[in-house]
Amino acid sequence: MNNAIEISVKNLNLWFGKFQALKNISIEIQKNQVTALIGPSGCGKSTFIKTLDRMNDLVDNVKTTGEVLYQGMNILDSDTDVVELRKQIGMVFQKPNPFPKSIFDNVAYGPRVHGVRKKHNLNEVVERSLKAAALWEEVKDRLNESALRLSGGQQQRLCIARLLAVEPDVLLMDEPASALDPIATSKIEDLIYELKNDYTIIIVTHNMQQAARVASNTAFFYLGELIEYAPTIDLFERPQDKRTEDYVTGKFG
Amino acid sequence: MARTRYVRKLKELRQNVVDMGAATMQSVEYVTTSLETSDSALAERAIANDNVIDTFDRKIEAQCMSLLALEQPMAKDLRLIATSLKMITDLERIGDFVVDIAEEVISMAKPIRIPVSATKFNELVDEVKSMVADSIVTYAEGNVQKARSFEGRDDSIDTLYKNIVDNTVSMLAQSQCSMETVADVASLLYIIRYLERIADHAVNIGNRVCYMEEGDRRYMK
Hints:
The complex is a heterodimer of chains A (253) and B (221). Helices cover 36% and strands 26% of the residues of chain A. By secondary structure, chain A is of the alpha/beta class.
């Protein structure tokens, strides 16, 4: 793990009320790499990535301690501009959630919010983003159609295009392919592989084979702790911790 | 314990590899005894036993492929399957060398005499037998400590091998042997070469067991 570090998390703890969901997490996320987070349900992996763009702020009674350093700042600080942060660190969710608008307007939504008004500029951003999300060829002749008419896999790639339109650095993906069929899944995985050239990607997945296929590094979470973090090949071929071994071989419990 | 059926399949795989190892060991026993007792019939049995080894080879390979394709094994399970898949090739090759030795035994004049370095020759035979047996035990038990001793034992075998070859060549150079004796000596040279190669495969198995147990590829050549 010698690459540049995009996000450095130090001693992160998070409580929902009295329940401690994350326990002293320290991890360095490499720039322009795919990092996969795996672990059983409730292990804290989704909570962890939601911390990285302050999505947990939307939940009541959340308390965090520790540091999440991104571009030299602790994003957990109260003076962090959360809107700007979420432009830099965007999230793709498990179920595709396009707006009930046209394909074009979905992708143009972010740039418009951030002040891009000229039609010419918007056209350019929409085309570039749809191309980067490997969707352009499939939708270029029907940009004004409702996004809701796209297939699930296309909707998910549209959501990725919508994210790319605001030119983020980091893409957080929470089970981005779990609602998709194998072909749509492989398109998303190919896309993730391509996108890592320009973005840092963190993906939460229940599918260990998916982590093995797309990620350079994989982190195993269990009961709110980061148990093991290693190059993916090492984690799946020779894990160091017995709990990781038991989880990846499916012998948990 | 989750994945009961899968765990059972892994156990069956391991047992089959051990059984294949036992069949290979049986062949080695047949052929070395045939050499000691000049028993061509036993050499024939060693040759016939190769079919058993080859059948195991095909069956275990299919088992490994099925586990890889259907179960997505990871970590130690993955290493067990990878090790088994490689190890059966070593065992199969040992079986082939046994056949080669058996064919030499059959072709040699009876009773078979070891014209030179007889003590060292017996030492070589015993050590090779012991290494094959131990390699199978290390796999069955996952005994890394024993597996690591193989490299040193292989060095001793190489020294013995070289020593016997040198003595035999000197003997041939100095004596007026009959053509028949020269042919038998040539057969013996082949045999010790095959024995030395068998030991190499036992070493491979030991190294693979280290990888299987610890995930460390340093020992694999």
